[in-house]
Amino acid sequence: MKISLDTDIRSLSDFRANTASYVQKVKSDRRPLVLTQNGRSAAVLVDVEEYQRLLDKVELLEELAQAKNELDRGEGIPHDELFKKIKSKYSL
User: 61 and 29 in one domain?
Assistant: First the structure.
């Protein structure tokens, strides 16, 4: 999701003055809100469900990277070989 410069970036002082409305906007729009301090990005406010989705994606990517590293080291078995073993074991 791309950040919209005119709607998704707010100063920390503006956020403090309007916290409830910005939290409600993030929840309803499901868009992150970038908070700035002294003109520089300082934090990002995201909806809880969106945050969980991001964590799930990161976890999956880490697992895939670990699996790739294991295969690169010669550990594990290739995908097609695994399916052959499963098919023969369960007569598929």
Answer: no
Query: Are 53 and 85 in the same domain?
Result: yes
pLDDT confidence bin for 5, thresholds 50/70/90: low
Taking the complete model, does pTM exceed 0.70, yes or no?
Answer: no
Cα gap 8→15, rounded to integer Å: 12
As beta bridge partners, residue 8 has: none
pLDDT at 28 over 90: yes
> Structural domain tally of the chain?
2
* Residue type, position 57, single letter: K
Structure tokens at 70: 């294991």
* Separation of alpha carbons 49 and 37, rounded Å: 26
